[in-house]
Specification:
Layout (H helix, E strand, L loop, with lengths): L2 E7 L3 E8 L2 E8 L5 H12 L7 E6 L2 H8 L5 E6 L5 H4 L24 E4 L2 E2 L5 E3 L3 H14 L3 E4 L9 H13 L4 E4 H4 L5 H29 L2 E5 L9 H6 L7 H17 L3 E7 L4 E7 L2 E2 L1 E6 L2 E8 L2 E3 L5 E5 L5 E7 L17 H7 L17 H15 L3 H23 L12 E4 L3 H12 L4 E4 L5 H8 L3 E11 L2 H23 L16 E11 L6 E4 L5 H13 L8 E12 L20 E3 L8 E5 L8 E3 L2 E4 L4 E4 L3 E5 L3 E6 L3
Parallel strand pairs: 1-4, 4-11, 5-6, 5-9, 9-10, 12-20, 20-21, 27-29
Antiparallel strand pairs: 1-2, 2-3, 7-8, 12-13, 13-14, 13-17, 15-16, 18-19, 21-32, 22-25, 23-24, 23-25, 26-27, 28-31, 29-30, 31-32
Length: 666
Amino acid sequence: MAVRIGIDTGGTFTDVVRQERGRLTVHKLPSTKDDPSRAVLQGIAAVRKRPDEAVDVVHGTTVGLNAVLEGKLPKTAFVTNRGFVDLIEIGRQERSELYALEPDRKTPPAPRELRVEAACRRAADGTAIEPLTTREIARIVRELKKRKPEAIAIGLLHSPTAPQDERAIARAIRSAMPAVRVTCSAELWPALGEYERFSAAILNAATAPLVSAYTERIQSQIGNGTLRLFRSSTGILPANEARAFPARAMFSGPAGGVLATQRLCEAIGIERAAAFDMGGTSTDVCLVEDGRIQTDQGQIAGLPLPLPTVDVHTVGCGGGSIAYCDRGGALRVGPESAGADPGPACYGKGEEPTVTDAHVALGHLGAATLLGGGFSIDPSRSVRAIERLAKKLSLSVRRTAEGILAVADASMARALLRITGERAVDPATAPLVCYGGAGGLHAARLCAQLGMPEALAPMHPGAFSALGLALAGDSAEVVEAALEPWSQANERQWRARGAQLRKLAAAQLDGTPSTDGEPGGKRSLAATSRASFVLRYRGQGQGLAIEATKEPLPRAFERAHEQRFGFVQPGTAIELVRITARAERRGKPLPASLPAAAGSRAPKPQLRKSPIGGAPIRWLRRDELPIGATIFGPCVIEEATAATLLPSGWSARIERFAIRMRKSTR
């Protein structure tokens, strides 16, 4: 049986976790921005016991995401109904910048000259108003050949109800242009809302050649093993689905960390937690509640991507975020990042001060902290970079370094409020699960600012997202469009259709081989399935997903609506927007860390001088701390993949699954 390896590629580091019989091997190496596959292949080789060992690699990749953000996409054409080629530019009436005199409306990557009109039209019920003819299909193919696209998206009105026209055009294109990737909107996202569906189809088509080339490059060099992508809504994508619909894995990296947070909540018995992933380039936050991962429709570069996605809010603030003085003389941090190359000044190439450099200057990170000394840093370069910024701000080096961290904290605190306070969730009821290479350095201060009860630093926090990938199980999702008013009779029919979709999702899951990373070929855990109904008040634009339980759907919807928006509208008609079903194998539970030593007393802390003077910094190694030990701040707890800062007035208890940090009562 193949050994499971989870790999998460970030902007600064690539994290690798090997999971075998509950034992973990963790490896971390710098990302290779010019070709991320090089770091991935190096990581696989580093944790393999022998070159021909069978491996099941589950990958969280940002190749498609980065290509969209950077605008580096292949030439993409779009086929739609005659008279509707501008719909993807018109979009909705929503304005992200309400008072901008010249708003910047984002357009999907299919320019006007690459849009082809199809002389056909169907009504909302699927009835043909203007039938699609073979002559028209031939004309569409000729027009596309003239434009020589590298990818093509097809989006027709009401295709979720009647997808045959999209399929007919796609068959003809694939026959005439076999090297070109084609995406049908109704196959990718069979739901109402033409603008969102068309945008998703174009984004999928545009990223498909890039993701396919990337995964094929890795697969060809793995040897004895398979490469699979992780779904943005958690769970492993079947290989054929990943090839056809890479947009479903657009946010696969953050999803791995959220899944690991869910496993941690289950292991220690907490119902709600805020996942806080601070990496080198950005910070991702997501609420995990009642053992469930919150999902929503995604957005990327200002464009809708209405596919199920972990409900992550991202801010451009990470360890590599560059600190600078703006034109008004104020200190700013991010969103521009030094990334992996040149990286923070302390890495030896960059000159700009970053959040990581501020921690180094203050002594929170030592010259041999990163990767247990395997990635040495130069504290003197951090000090010099911050000195240059301090002169511009007319501040001392210490005040500047502390200011960089305070500005970064403010940005991340706002992100955490987005997923808690703005959604009627009291931060005081949500422990903070901190991970990513820099998460533990900011967790305690963020908890203090927001009144969160405690912070939890899990094992291997700098590779926690990769750990989630290593523990994941297979998944399948099915969507059916609808637009029907609620009635008791309709609800009975909806529930029956939901049950059918659950069976369909389970059947798709049964068609995928079980690769749980354990010898013997046994399935990881029994598959489970559930159905949800997306409901809204008549006249609303979006809906809320209500899981099928015994509770009447209107009552469950109004309770969820009041919690999410703060009000209900009694007497207003409720309607169904779509039905979704998901089947999954849960994969593996979170393994517990082994005690480092007998007893419950921690070793005496070591001392490290701060490069800019002041009191020495007390620090301990996490692998030397026995379970049950209690540590009091100020102190830094270091490990191979991350460091955790325990401020003065805080204590930390070492537990089997995490370090539990709280304000001290001593």
